[in-house]
Amino acid sequence: MSTLTICIVVAFLFGYLCIALESLTRVNKAAIALLMCVVCWTLLMLSPASFYPEIAEGSVVHHIAEVIEHHLGDAAGTLFFLMGAMTIVEIVDSNGGFNFVRDTMKTRSKRKLLWRVAFMTFFLSAILDNLTTSIVMIMVLRKLVQSREDRLLYAALVIIAANSGGAFSPIGDVTTIMLWIKGVITTQGVITEIFIPSLVSMVIPAFILSLQLNGKFDKEQNLPKADVSQFTKVQRDIIFWLGVGGLIFVPIFKTLTHLPPFMGILLVLGVLWTTTEIFHYNTSEDDTMAKRVSDIMTKIDLSTIMFFLGILMAVAVLQEVGVLTMLGEGLNEAFSGNYYVINGIIGVLSSIVDNVPLVAGCMGMYPVAAEGAMAVDGIFWQLLAYCAGVGGSMLIIGSAAGVVVMGLEKITFGWYMKKITWIVFVGYLSGILIYWLERMLLF
Q1: pLDDT (tens digit per residue) in 32-86
Q2: What is the 8-class DSSP label of residue 220?
Q3: At what angle do helices 323-334 and 302-320 cross, to 10 degrees?
Q4: How distant, in Å, are the alpha carbons of 46, 60, 75, 348, 394 from that of 41?
Q5: Which residues contact 262 (CB under 8 A, 6 or more apart)?
Q6: Which of 51, 179, 290, 311 has the most beta carbons within 10 angstroms of its beta carbon?
Q7: Distance separating alpha carbons of residues 109 and 82, to the nearest angstrom
Q8: In whole angstroms, what separates CA 378 from the centre of its chain?
Q9: Which one, of 168, 128, 189, 101, lies nearest residue 377 by Cα?
Q10: In a 3-state reduction of DSSP, which class is residue 308?
Q11: Longest C-alpha distance within the chain, in Å?
């Protein structure tokens, strides 16, 4: 490994450390990711010919520009998909489309509420995404559960269920979106083979948490009052089903047209946007279409988009200089190609550091094969989707869902690690065992 390659790796690891310690440094991880990306590419440009000896010296700069555009194109597909999905969810939420979720939760039994929250979060996460679902469910829980001690347990369950639900869906988690867009997993493959392990990884922790809840809520405290809305119930239901049904339709659209997934998202966004504008014709509002659009767009978390851009492009540098290939070969030699152990370790690591760069790195470390564990829908890629998604629940900083719930409910790192981590680990291992049994019995 050359000195320049070592410098690139050190720059990446230092940036990675700053991202992991965001709560201590108080510097937004998006800013660090963007800096890390630019520094790594700049270091590569100090001696580009050493990384591309097969390219003529006069053409190497032009070649790197093409390489950057190629990686940027791959990243842009993921980013446009995320922005479109976020906008769809904001349109549905801002027009009262999620009110039915709150109404469905109504019960005085603490344990009944826990199971309703678990399954609602699990399936909503598969359709929307784990980050958005977590925000929706925490907002609902604030109206239903007044006791902070009880609400912390429900909030922890939201993190677990959201990550487990996102792991078996091609659009449920950023990591599965990345794997799906890359083409290493298919919609049918990941749903049919990862659904049961993901469900087990949610049900077992939910059962353990349910043992800590007894009794009923006060009669008044968890009965939500209807919000005043400018739309009728029928209109809100139409908006909800257009948004959620549209997200479900995106994988079907990709299969039928063979267009990139973000094109399907843009189709759904266009239909939903047009519908809400038509509904606004009959309201008494005096605001303009431009104002409504700008209000919705300001709710999109652009810092998250910038973070993903920086991370994906920084990982691309490691791929270009051959570091990821070396790491992949090292893991294979250390564990003799045991993909259950390799992915199990990756899942644990995803609870310590963000799973997005981990998965991005794995996609660069391991080539897609025509057959075997590395083939499309092979053991490696499906386990990677499961482990990176579910494993992120072990620590509260290990997933986007955990970070957002931590901020909303002010959950401490220590409380979560003491009370929840071991519960998640039991469910995580159980899901891997179930996947192994599936492979042994069905294939």
Answers
A1: 989 999 999 999 888 877 777 777 767 888 888 888 888 888 788 878 887 887 7
A2: T
A3: 80
A4: 9, 14, 15, 29, 33
A5: 77, 80, 81, 84
A6: 311
A7: 36
A8: 21
A9: 189
A10: helix
A11: 77
Residue 153's alpha-carbon distances to 112, 113, 164, 427, in angstroms, are: 14, 12, 17, 16
**Alpha helical stretches, state H, 335-410:** 339-352, 355-365, 379-391, 400-409
Q: Is 407 exposed, middle or buried (0-12, 13-18, 19+ CB in 10 A)?
A: exposed
415 Cβ partners below 8 Å, 6+ apart?
152
How many residues are given for the chain?
A: 443
Read off the tokens for 357: 């760069």
d(CA 269, CA 267): 5
| Tens-place pLDDT, residues 132-148 | 788 778 878 887 888 88
User: What tokens does 356 get?
Assistant: 């997005």
Q: 258: phi > 0 → left, psi -120 to 50 → alpha, else beta; which?
A: left
Structure tokens given for 439: 């492979």
Tell me the one-letter amino acid at 251.
P
Tokens of 133: 């679902």
8 A C-beta contact, residue 9 and residue 318: yes
Q: What does the block give as tokens for 416?
A: 């979560």
**φ/ψ (deg, to 5) at 109:** -80, 125
Taking the alpha carbons at both ends of the chain, their separation in whole angstroms is 41
